[in-house]
Design brief:
Largest sheet: 9 strands, mixed
Strand content: 35-45%
Number of strands: 9
Radius of gyration: 15 Å
Distance between the termini: 33 Å
Shape: globular
CATH architecture: 3-Layer(aba) Sandwich
């Protein structure tokens, strides 16, 4: 399996993979809008390729803690016939490494605490970061990569339209 940056010609197949992974239109629609958002970070949009086919995708977009730029992870998707085969793990490791290499101080996400703990994520509140929605509780998590920041997190503007 190869992990590489998403290319413009990958957008359609990434949408197909995302639709299949989630079984609905919300996430592909979100990706289409994110690609037009000022928060789109092409260097943090990665695909997993196996036997010449895109089988997974992950993206991080610009977010903020207070005025400090950080990134928000997601959506992440893996083609159903490749789920539970390590594709998602490889994508997360790769995007965290890329985010750290580009100097990002932290990555935030909304997800299963048990699953994401293995990648070094902790509840954001433990690091002094408030989630956009307090109801998210421990599901809103962060992984620090550099300088410590505190305050309230906000996603790229497109997420506000969900």
């Amino acid at each position: 399996m190869l992990i590489r940056r998403e290319r413009p010609e990958d957008a359609e197949v990434v949408d197909t993979v995302t639709r299949a992974a989630f079984g609905r239109e919300l996430e592909p629609s979100l990706l289409a809008r994110l690609r037009r958002d000022d928060g789109w970070l092409p260097e943090l949009s990665l695909v997993a390729v196996e036997s010449g086919e895109v089988v997974g995708h992950v993206v991080c977009t610009r977010g903020f803690v207070g005025d400090a730029p950080v990134v928000g992870l997601g959506p992440i998707s893996v083609r159903p016939d490749h789920q539970r085969c390590g594709v998602g793990h490889a994508l997360i490791h790769a995007v965290l490494g890329a985010a750290e290499a580009t100097g990002e101080p932290l990555v935030a996400l909304l997800g299963d605490p048990v699953f994401y703990r293995r990648f070094g994520f902790i509840p954001a509140s433990e690091a002094g970061i408030d989630s956009p929605d307090r109801a998210w509780g421990e599901h809103f998590q962060i992984r620090t990569l550099g300088a410590r920041v505190t305050g309230t997190f906000r996603y790229a503007a497109t997420f506000a339209d969900l």
